[in-house]
Design brief:
By secondary structure, this protein is an all-alpha fold. It has helices spanning 28-38, 43-62, 65-68, 81-111, 115-119, 126-154, 166-185, 195-207, 219-226, 229-242, 249-275; strands spanning 70-72, 78-80. The protein has one domain. Helix 2 (43-62) runs antiparallel to helix 4.
Length: 277
């Protein structure tokens, strides 16, 4: 990991007082800085995030599909095993991409690169910084999701035209996880604390109805799974790729809207407390 001090295209003086100290209306400056820094990064490392869900799909979705046969979704629709796990892998990819960009990268910039301290010394506010970092992570995640959706299309795993709506759904999922991830990272002081990220992500990946239906669990375990954010993302994208739309999907969307709001509020307050108060 290299330290990249790219110039921030901001002008003006630092804003103080009320909302003006939080928001300068220029998160694009942070996004632009991210793209400038990415030009000196290894494209192999950047593209590696695309191949993880593809390998899972090839090894499990296609490899096990012939042995498992059709699987019933939560809406009662029977689909092939590959069509069952492909949308779940898309949701997992959105979660992992958003979390890793908003935790490891943010942790380094916050504690070692001291980049946010420099950003907040300009006209940028803490909300500009938070939104800019999250938007940059979302653009990277959208690149991965678009490539994976193309593979799903060629493999015949998008069972309805509503699969096109899975792309904005991926952005919503990534936004939610990135907002919360950045808020949590702002409280971490050592690299050892980052181990807790994998401690939380791995069980969510295994138990959020990604690889098998939620009905295999006892009822009390199902309620726990339904409280996890990844389950809402998996169900949302699976409904869109299979074409089974229902009113319950609104609750999945609202879940992530709340995540985004809570994450942005905590991140903004934390950055302000660290560098402006």
């Amino acid at each position: 990991m290299t330290l990249q001090h790219a110039p921030l295209p901001t002008t003006g003086t630092r804003r103080t007082g009320g909302v003006r100290s939080l928001w300068a209306g220029n998160p694009g400056a942070v996004v632009q800085r991210g793209f400038i820094a990415a030009r000196s990064s290894s494209w192999v490392v950047i593209l590696s995030g695309f191949f993880e869900p593809v390998f899972y799909l090839l090894s499990m979705g296609i490899g096990l599909s012939a042995l498992i046969g059709d699987v019933e979704t939560s809406t009662g629709l029977e689909v092939s095993y590959a069509a069952f796990i492909a949308p779940a892998l898309l949701a997992v990819s959105a979660m992992n991409g958003a979390i890793y960009d908003s935790t490891w990268n943010v942790f380094f910039k916050l504690n070692y690169g001291k980049l946010y301290e420099g950003m907040l010394a300009t006209s940028l506010g803490s909300l500009d910084v938070a939104l800019g970092e999250i938007l940059y992570a979302l653009m990277r995640g959208l690149l991965y999701a678009s490539g994976f959706m193309i593979i799903m299309q060629f493999a015949g795993l998008n069972l309805s035209w509503t699969a096109l709506l899975a792309l904005p759904a991926v952005l919503l999922i990534g936004f939610g996880f990135a907002s919360v991830g950045m808020a949590i990272t702002s409280y971490m002081k050592a690299f050892q604390h980052m181990d807790w990220i994998n401690f939380v992500l791995l069980p969510m990946f295994l138990f959020s109805a990604t690889l098998y239906p939620i009905t295999v669990y006892p009822e009390f375990v199902q309620w726990i799974v339904k409280a996890l954010p990844l389950w809402h993302g998996v169900e949302l994208i699976r409904g869109l790729t299979t074409g089974v739309l229902h009113t319950g999907m609104i609750w999945h969307v609202l879940y992530y809207v709340v995540m985004i709001a809570v994450g942005l509020v905590f991140t903004t307050k934390r950055l302000r407390a660290l560098f402006l108060d």
